[in-house]
Amino acid sequence: MAVRLSRRSYEYARRLIDNGAVVLDERDDWSEHRPSSRQENEFIAEHGFSEYQKWYLGISEEEDEDNKERYKFPYGDFHKVHRCGMLAAESRAGQYKYFDIEWAVAHLHGMLDALMSAK
Fold first, then answer.
1. Residue-level pLDDT at 37
2. How far apart are the C-alpha atoms of 67 and 14, rounded to whole Å?
3. Which of 19, 25, 84, 112 is 20 to 30 A from 91 via CA?
4. Does pTM top 0.90 for this prediction?
């Protein structure tokens, strides 16, 4: 499966971080903080796939645009960027050798860590 970085999502995540829309949580929190399938479906019903895709750093070109399976590497809860989501995405991108996504997530992770250091 070919997955590429969504530049649109990357830039959206950067803006959210710059604006302080972040949760500076721990690595293991993602299983509790990640949106459930029900929450994803509700978000899509209210906002559509155009907004949904902004919360996923990877795109699978093999899937249709109106299919949740197209969007990979979530990083937030549809309101804020979660550090735990970035850490999970960074690990998975490295594991599957999606280097463009791994680089982008590492940069975003660094931005979050800088915010943590400032506190």
1. 97
2. 25
3. 19
4. yes
